[in-house]
Amino acid sequence: MDTASAPAGHANAALIARFYAALGRRDAETMAACYHPRATFSDPVFPELDAAGVAAMWRMLCARGRDLAIEASNIAADATSGHAHWVARYTYSATGRRVVNRIDAEFLFRDGLIHRHRDRFDLYRWLRQALGVKGAALGWLPPVKRATQVQAAKSLAAWRAKEAG
To answer: Which of 67, 84, 126, 153 has the lowest tally of Cβ within 10 angstroms?
Structure first.
């Protein structure tokens, strides 16, 4: 599915399509406007973010993702929940390695906005692509997965501190 076109159906499906179209343009402000003020987000790298954290995460990722390409598909939603599949293609800035990340997203809605967003993907597969031999050899180990989360949290904290000024 072209990320710029909205699927037929519920307004929440259009909200999901708008969110991914904004991600494809690296428009973090439009993405943040899709979230409820009390939203939460989780994925294997950022396991629990509040609304301010998720907005900062998308600003950071959009700013760093200079060659980011997004494909969203299988978007569906009703009044309370929704889902999508999306593929992100980009160069991981820390290593310069190309990554193709296939992600399944689940959403809960409140007041016409995303209240809960959960992305699921194979972290070991991501680590193999992003880190190469090191990721392939060690990425399956729980301490490496935890270290990835800790490093991501540090990067996000540094980004937020820089934004605060």
So the answer is: 67
